[in-house]
Amino acid sequence: MQRVAIDAVARESGKHGKLGALRRQGFIPAVVYGHGMVPMSVAVPVRAFERVRRTTGESAIVELQFEGDKAITTVVQEYQMNPIRDTYTHVDFLSISLDEPLTSRIPIRPIGTAIGLKEGGVLEHSLYELDVQALPLDIPEYLEVDVSDLGLKHSIHVADLKLGDKIKVLTNEMATVFSVVAPAVEEAPPVPEEGVVVEGAAPATGTAPAAGTAPAAVPAEVAPKTVSKK
């Protein structure tokens, strides 16, 4: 996991009005908890947090830097956003130790071109994230999986992934990550034989209805809509 630093300030737990004023000043209200510490209300600059999210994605070790050289090592546990403005409204930071295993979820990305595509197949990406446990600095930002040798009707499962001895995989090893499948073929509707009446179809012009069938109904004339003007 990449390690980044963000300036943070302690704040008092306030009401909604105080939190709104804090956001207007360019800060995101946040809380830090975990690893035996008493939950602490803090605030971080919105631009600094957005920059971290853009450059490190979902997984990063965030060092919250306070005045007086105080720092807390954390990861982003959860965040909330305004669905209309698409802005951050609150962040939960989880305090961690670099010497203790951490459970995390890392993205999975394909690299290469599967040989099965040349055979007319389609690459399906079934599992997008992998649950793992390891020391924080041993957890990768993402996992690249080479699909070059994947042929038609073949799959890559979690058990096939190589992450080394330092990382424990928590996801079911039988779960499918990638597979190359044959493209779906749409069946053409059946063509009726000559002289066979298809249910629901109107008889051809100039021909009588088939025996035992009622003649097609003639739609009634639609009355014009009248609009009164006063």
What are the salient characteristics of this protein?
230 residues, mainly beta, Ribosomal Protein L25, Chain P, RNA Polymerase Alpha Subunit, Chain A, domain 2, 4-stranded mixed sheet
Structural description of this entry:
The chain has 2 helices and 14 strands; from the N terminus they run E-E-H-E-E-H-E-E-E-E-E-E-E-E-E-E. It has a 7-stranded mixed β-sheet. The chain has helices at residues 16-24, 46-56, and strands at 3-7, 9-10, 27-34, 37-45, 61-65, 71-82, 87-95, 102-111, 122-125, 129-134, 143-146, 155-157, 168-169, 176-181. A hairpin with a 4-residue loop joins strand 6 (71-82) and strand 7. Residues 220-230 have low confidence and may be disordered. Helix content is 9%, strand content 37%. The chain has 2 domains: 3-95, Ribosomal Protein L25, Chain P; 102-181, RNA Polymerase Alpha Subunit, Chain A, domain 2, CATH 2.170.120.20. With 230 residues, the protein is mainly β. Residues 203-230 are annotated as: Disordered. Pfam families: Ribosomal_L25p, Ribosomal_TL5_C. This is one of the proteins that binds to the 5S RNA in the ribosome where it forms part of the central protuberance.
